[in-house]
Design goal:
Blueprint lengths: L1 E3 L15 E5 L7 E2 L5 H10 L3 E5 L15 E2 L3 E4 L4 H10 L4 H11 L1
Parallel strand pairs: 1-2, 1-3, 2-4
Antiparallel strand pairs: 4-6, 5-6
Helix pairs in contact: 1-2, 2-3
Length: 110
């Protein structure tokens, strides 16, 4: 499924990644709107359902995911497997629920 933290639908996400929920910090069409303040709860819910999560900061045409990695942090994306739930929640609570601080925290733990 594709989720967006904005309400405007202007671009389309074409990445077809099976068993992955995609969360976008940019307007997308054909997505489910999630309030920006609830971003971390929606991601944690997907991880709890044993889904991989791909968080996009802008529309990317291609991302290579190594399913053996603990998580992947790129310039404009973050990929989390279900086994990263506890680390994600810990980083979220320690960093005042700020996406950019959570992402930086995961970079330092990698």
């Amino acid at each position: 499924m594709i989720f967006s933290f904005t309400e405007d639908a202007t671009s389309e996400v074409i990445l077809g990644v099976p068993h992955t929920d995609i969360f976008c910090f940019f307007p997308t069409s054909h997505s489910i709107h999630v309030p920006h303040s609830q971003w971390w709860k929606a991601i944690a819910a997907s991880l709890r359902l044993k889904k991989e999560v791909l968080i996009l900061e802008e529309n990317l045409s291609e991302i290579h995911v190594n399913s053996n990695a603990r998580w992947l942090v790129g310039d404009k994306f973050l990929w989390l497997p279900p086994r990263s739930l506890s680390v994600f929640l810990e980083a979220t609570h320690q960093n005042s629920y700020s996406y950019l601080l959570v992402k930086a925290s995961l970079v330092s733990r990698n």
